[in-house]
Amino acid sequence: MTVTILVVEDELAIQELIALNLKKAGHIVLCASDAEQARKMVNNILPDLVLLDWMLPDMSGLEFAKKLRREERTKTIPIIMLTARVQESDKIAGLDAGADDYVTKPFSPRELLARIKAVLRRRLPEMSDEIIEIGGLKLDPVTHRVHVIATDDPSKATEITLGPTEFRLLHFLMAHKERVHTRAQLLDRVWGDHVFIEDRTVDVHIRRLRKILEKVEKENLVQTVRGTGYRFSIEQTEEAVE
Amino acid sequence: MTVTILVVEDELAIQELIALNLKKAGHIVLCASDAEQARKMVNNILPDLVLLDWMLPDMSGLEFAKKLRREERTKTIPIIMLTARVQESDKIAGLDAGADDYVTKPFSPRELLARIKAVLRRRLPEMSDEIIEIGGLKLDPVTHRVHVIATDDPSKATEITLGPTEFRLLHFLMAHKERVHTRAQLLDRVWGDHVFIEDRTVDVHIRRLRKILEKVEKENLVQTVRGTGYRFSIEQTEEAVE
DNA sequence: CCTGATTGTCATAAATTTGTAACGCATTCT
DNA sequence: AGAATGCGTTACAAATTTATGACAATCAGG
To answer: Shortest CA distance to A186 belongs to which of A200, A174, A172, A175?
Structure first.
């Protein structure tokens, strides 16, 4: 998964150290030494995650975090705070402006990477570009294709075509298989946060997705959980046959 | 787990930050700035947990906690106190009023969420979405499935299908096993607050639940306690076996 | 500016769920 | 025993929840 990370840190030595490690881990790294620089950077390229030093020359990290949270475009970006020492007084009201995690200096690169991974997994599991293959369906986020694997001959694969929304919906469901998702949750995570769309619209898209899956007899992977929502699952809920 | 939390805190900045964090954690948040507002709110929507500032403009948090404890409808709601001081004497007074836990300012969102989770697990086990497995029945709130574990081969599991209400009912009973629940209690906690439904309706749902459990010979897990209500128990109240 | 694909909403149909009422059996009380 | 109470069962109609097809608005390219 190629993730773009913005590092906001005024001490150049530390900044570079972090950047080096992140690059080594395969991330794209953007660096800024103060909030103003960071702001410009964000305007230019939207990062997937922000590593934010608690103390910055021009504005406290806290302020900057709040700022990010306020703007529509940046409000959902995960933020990890880099705080010097474990001084409780630093954690001020202790309440951050919505940071997703803290890392206290000094920290090991290993720890930092682990935290980053954890936050990303929590916030954007379906953003990882890994191919997902479940129940005879193979979805490749990179090529943006979905294939049906023939059960008898795994080497054969038929492609199926999905619209943009259906693709994202299927991607999300597959990335979070075996879990029930309410319509509200799906709207939040597939359509985007704070969208003002009817719950029922989800039904329609599920319908569209199923219609396409019907053609390859995979429609029962998308299951209805009455009173709750929908679920992607291999396990078939067989009705009690009398 | 969708939990409704009422935040009673007069400092708006802190109130908002708490609300933000709670929402991010997937909770539904209600806010009040003083006891009077909080009272009205509680009358309207019964929260699952109350975060209560120690000092409020119109009434001490302590007073408000006691008030909640006095009323039938609210007496079981878990309360977490937000206190600026750590004085032992206060702690005792608070425990007296029935607070379930304390968080002293300043605190980190992580800590607050952890405390909330702990309190909920203790007081409202059916809200936590952990898998519950008792007497050969395994209920998973996340996937929303119920399985019967074969006694001879624990790896085999047959799924059973429940309607929404039966699922909630079984979930509640399993989360509070070995306890008798009156019909009124079940209506309050499974159907929800403020519902005006006949007591006898519970019987019917118990019946429906049992009917499904009969198919897998688990119906005696749901037991009748004559004159009181129902109970989920492994222990068999064996009648004169014929 | 046209063309076809995509999307959000509705209206309607279909499927399930749910609360009550009614009846009968069992247990307890008088 | 006879009455009273509590519970189990069944049947049903009302209410709720989903599925589905149609439609208009919007969008992306030509």
So the answer is: A172
In this structure, is the CB of residue B228 within 7 Å of any atom belonging to strand D? Answer: yes
- CATH class of the region B4-123: alpha beta
Architecture in CATH of A132-232: Orthogonal Bundle (1.10)
SS (H, E, C) A47-101: CCEEEEECCCCCCCHHHHHHHHHHCCCCCCCCEEEEEECCCHHHHCCCCCCCCCE
Burial class (CB in 10 A: 0-12, 13-18, 19+), A197: exposed
Residue A181 CB in 7 A reach of strand C: no
Q: CB under 8 Å, gap of 24 or more: what pairs does A233-239 form?
A: A233/A177, A233/A178, A233/B143, A234/A134, A234/A135, A234/A177, A234/A178, A235/A178, A235/B145, A235/B159, A237/B145, A237/B159, A237/B161, A238/B159, A239/B161
**pLDDT one-digit tens code per residue, A84-116:** 655 444 444 334 455 667 676 677 777 788 788
Q: Per-domain residue ranges for chain A?
A: 4-123, 132-232
Other C-beta atoms within 10 Å of A232: how many? Answer: 23
Estimate in Å the CA B230 to C1' C16 gap, whole number: 26
Q: Which two tokens stand for residue A235?
A: 């396990």
> Taking Cα atoms as reference points, which of B210, B226, B193 lies closest to residue B76?
B193
Q: Distance of alpha carbon A10 from its chain centroid, rounded?
A: 28
Q: Tokens 């929800």 appear where?
A: B192
Q: Tell me: the pLDDT tens digits for B144-195?
A: 999 999 888 877 889 999 999 999 999 999 999 999 999 999 999 999 877 8
Output the CA angle B28-B34-B36, nearest 5 degrees: 95
For strands A145-149 and A137-140, give the pairing.
antiparallel
User: HSE of B105 in the Cβ direction (CA atoms, 13 Å)?
Assistant: 19
Contact assignment for A225 to B20 by CB distance below 8 Å: no
Contact B29, B17 (CB under 8 A): no
Chain B nearest-CA distance from A132, in A, is: 19
CB-based contact, B24 to chain A, within 8 Å: yes
**Are B99 and B65 within 8 A, CB to CB?**
yes
Residue–nucleotide distance: B200 CA to C21 C1' (Å): 11
Determine whether the distance from the CB of A224 to the nearest atom of strand D is below 7 Å: yes
Q: Does residue B7 contact residue B22 with C-beta atoms inside 8 Å?
A: yes
